[in-house]
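User:
Can I borrow your eye for a moment on a structure tokenisation matter? Would you put together a sequence-and-structure record for a protein of your own picking? Please set it down just below, with no commentary around it:
AI:
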Amino acid sequence: MINLIIFDCDGVLVDSEIIANRIDVETFKQFGYLTSVEECIKRFSGIDVKNTRRIIREESAVDIPYEIFEDIQEKILTTFSDELLPLMTDVLIEVTRQNIPRCVASSSQKERVSYSLELTGQLQFFEQNHIFTSQQVTHGKPAPDLFLFAAKQMNCLPENCLVIEDSPPGIEAAKAAGMHVIGFTGGSHAHFSWYQDRLRKYNIPLAKNSAEVLSFIKTLSLQ
């Protein structure tokens, strides 16, 4: 029985990953770290700033200052105002109608999450204290810490939680937490065949749109 739905934000609630990765690539280039948008998605989707910096530093010796990532966030938020689209409005309407508890667990900063949801008309479906981010735990995804923290704050056992995730680190984190998980491939960044192949390896339900997410939620809720 599902007593709590935990939504990732980027790539699940909002179609943000393709935008954010484009800006990341443009900024990384200024520091001598050359990559493509597709490769950036492949390497860094679902990973927080600390781990992104570490990976870049270890493989290329390019040490991008932490404050640059703050500049990146400002650029992303500015671009969101023109380009960001919602992905889960109909799902949120339905789970609200059914009074199913829900929260957000994201690797992004809370300011970005709240702004993204407000821009896309989805903030109304979440209490502010039900938006959890990697800044609240020691280890971000793929560690299970964030999902376990969210479940504890929402007074729900991990085995009664359903996570909706789009990235391998997020899926690994949910599975490590002992939670049900649906892989979502409805975001623009998830249309690459290799991306979908990567998610299939986890042997979990995959939903290519919000209608399929609703179908899986109904099935799991009845178990």
The two ends are 5 Å apart (CA to CA). The beta strands are 4-7, 102-106, 131-133, 161-165, 180-184, 206-207. Residues 17-83 form a domain with the DNA polymerase; domain 1 fold (CATH 1.10.150.240).
